[in-house]
Amino acid sequence: MSGASKFVNLCQNKSCDKKLSTYMDDKELINLIEKDKSSGFKFLVNKYQRLVVNTCYGFVHNQADAEDIAQDVFIEVYRSIKRFRKQSKLSTWLYRIAVNKSLNHLRDNKKNTWLKSLDILFDDDSNTKTLEPEDSKNNMPDKITENKETGNYIYKAINTLPDNQKIAFTLNKYEDLSYKEIADVMELSLSSIESLIFRAKKNLQKKLIEHYKNL
Predict the structure, then answer these.
(1) What does the pLDDT read at residue 139?
(2) How far is CA 1 from the centre of its chain?
(3) Residue 46 above 80 pLDDT?
(4) CA triple 180-99-67, angle to 5 deg
(5) Region for residue 187 given its phi and psi (left: phi exceeds 0; alpha: psi -120 to 50; beta: otherwise)
(6) Listed residue (61, 63, 33) closest to 47, CA to CA
(7) Which of helix, strand or coil describes residue 100?
(8) CATH architecture of the domain with residue range 118-213
(9) Angle at 176 between CA 205 and CA 73, to 5 degrees
(10) Which residue, among 94, 105, 209, 210, has the nearest Cα to 159 in the 3D structure?
(11) By the 8 A CB rule, do 89 and 26 touch?
(12) pLDDT: is 140 or 10 the higher one?
């Protein structure tokens, strides 16, 4: 295990002062890292670990994989912190690295373990019934099977989207990032993000309709 890997594990084992890291802003973190890379990086991991793991999980939907990818993210951050452009937010930079690492993982590992409800594909005023994985304790086995199959199909459908649509859609629907925040992460204009998410939703709706027609 590399020194960076051991260092990430050390931070994940809660040996750092998490309460203090919460109150440190990006400027203070960077200043600390420049003075003492080891100590500063501990605080950075503690402050942003949940954000990075959740972002990775939003793409891979497997907790163990998300944690492994998050470790890779922090290792890259540790090695390339000097290249961080201070005019942007640390969280934006971390989102960008986490997204890239997650997409690489998806390309290398075709796993279909995601189960999500269908309401993400439609506007709030949609009359489409949402299928929840466990919407009732009285669910019949065939209903549960149908929901799992639908969840797997949605996962596959999202993975067929062009990368930019997949990133924008996932960050908006599963990470709750605003269009402006997504634009910062993806380094695109606000109108481009609006277009990407609109096209992603339309593409997913079309795929879902075709899926049900063929059942």
Answers:
(1) 42
(2) 26
(3) yes
(4) 125
(5) left
(6) 33
(7) helix
(8) Orthogonal Bundle (1.10)
(9) 105
(10) 105
(11) yes
(12) 10
pLDDT in tens, 96-132: 999 999 988 888 775 444 433 344 444 444 433 333 3
| pLDDT tens sequence across 82-99 | 888 777 789 999 999 999
- Which CATH class for the 3-108 domain? mainly alpha
Provide the 3-class DSSP secondary structure of residue 144. Answer: helix
Question: How far is residue 5's CA from residue 136's CA, in Å, rounded to a whole number?
Answer: 43
Nearest CA to 49 out of 23, 33, 70 is that of 70
Cα 61–chain centre separation: 9
- Alpha-carbon span 153 to 103, nearest angstrom: 18
| Helices (H), ranges, the chain | 3-12, 18-23, 26-35, 37-60, 63-80, 90-108, 141-159, 163-173, 179-186, 190-213
Evaluated on CA atoms 135, 137, 140, 142, the torsion sign reads positive
Domain boundaries, the chain: 3-108, 118-213
As a whole number of Å, the end-to-end CA separation of the chain is 49
CA distance 48 to 63: 17
Structure tokens at 173: 């629907």
Confidence of residue 72 (pLDDT cuts 50, 70, 90): very high
Is 121:129 a contact under the CB 8 Å cutoff? no
Tokens representing 190 are 């606000």
**Mean pLDDT value of segment 142-161:** 67
Contact call for residues 45 and 74 (beta carbons, < 8 A): yes
